[in-house]
Amino acid sequence: MNVGLFIPCYVNQFYPQAARATLELLRKMGVNVRYPTKQICCGQPMANSGFEHLAQDCNNTFIENFAAFDYIVGPSASCILHLKDHLHSDTQEAIATEIRGKVYELVEFLTDVLKIESLDAAFPHKVGLHHSCHGLRGLRLAQMSELNAPDFSKPQQLLAMVKGLEQVPLDRCDECCGFGGVFCVSEEAVSVKMGKDRVADHTRNGAEYITSSDLSCLMHLEGILHRKNSAVKVIHISEILNATL
């Protein structure tokens, strides 16, 4: 298969180690992956602010960069969900529709497309898993706790394959961290309180690391941890799945 690696702009700027880990992990899985160098922002910040019509150039640039690939994979649940739901084009709508059907977040690509059953990875630490709202309720990476339905978690399924890793149980396993993109700016106090609650849950249960499929949530939590001078660290799930002793 021919896979295009989509790295969201904030990942490129602030967490390049997660981008590298995603690339290396896919190559370990035998995937032919390429990174289009002219890719830019997916347009989610404009859309979330109520200005989706201003993201058309972002949409067209994404189409130009990724139309030729069999799959598009990225390490950010929120950006991937945005593309799945909102990638449109005023001149190439048929192509945009096709692309929306082949865009995958890294975890769902590994579990749903590659269907991997084992990993050559080791991460001997206690890890708390944060289910982002976009990943949970948008991409359905795990079952929502408010539903009376069979439980599942694709990230937990992958983390269970990592040698030495101990997944710590949380009191509220799928509560929002409060980031919410522009929400953390427009409702700063509420956002910070929600983030502090999530950090406290992980810390109380002994997590050394907090991981997620969404680096935007991890960035929010990392800021709170830093201000608390906490020893707990954040790490994207790609870095754990790609880790070796």
From TrEMBL:
What are the leading ranks of the lineage?
Answer: Bacteria, Pseudomonadati, Bacteroidota, Cytophagia, Cytophagales
* Database matches in PANTHER family: LACTATE UTILIZATION PROTEIN A, UNCHARACTERIZED PROTEIN YKGE
A single Pfam family it belongs to is CCG
- GO CC terms in record: cytosol
UniProt source species: Salmonirosea aquatica
Query: Which segments constitute the Cysteine-rich domain?
Result: 3-84, 127-221
Coiled-coil boundaries: none
| Molecular function per GO | oxidoreductase activity
User: What is the protein name given in its UniProt record?
Assistant: (Fe-S)-binding protein
Source organism's superkingdom? Bacteria
Q: Any transmembrane segments, and where?
A: none
